[in-house]
Amino acid sequence: xxxxxxxxxxxxxxxxxxxxxxxxxxxxxxxxxxxxxxxxxxxxxxxxxxxxxxxxxxxxxxxxxxxxxxxxxxxxxxxxxxxxxxxxxxxxxxxxxxxxxxxxxxxxxxxxxxxxxxxxxxxxxxxxxxxxxxxxxxxxxxxxxxxxxxxxxxxxxxxxxxxxxxxxxxxxxxxxxxxxxxxxxxxxxxxxxxxx
Length: 196
Hints:
This protein is mainly alpha-helical. The chain has helices at residues 3-11, 21-30, 36-48, 57-66, 70-83, 88-97, 113-125, 130-138, 144-157, 165-174, 178-193. The longest helix has 16 residues, at 178-193. The protein starts with a helix and ends with a helix.
């Protein structure tokens, strides 16, 4: 493992300060055409700064939308959710990320890791993300997998997604796709089960 990768691993474990945002953004820029693992971990390190990294959001959104590597896009999604800035650009990038079919080798040979990061990010954004997710959930144009991902994300938001209860219930009662029904059931359970 190279030095850059070792340093990147340490970044997500140490306590960073707001003053570290600009140097981390420079690292992302330097790594643009190099090591995807470093881009993933630097993005996650920025996310660990929470609101202190709000100036990094445009760079993270760009990485989520355009990086060719699924792991780097995953890191950007996780970071955007941790920063918690629910701007129009962030929500649009995350909604597009529900369709991300990025693959990379895992122990099972395939991964939906980018979508997992996007779903996690929606949980960090909360109620402002609900209207867009409901549009995806209701859209018959979207495939069952994308709609299932929206149901999963709504569940991750929890009680703040209570506006989705009726739609999730309809899916349970009327949809044929098993995965969509399962994600709707899980989402519904998370929305209703969490303390208000």
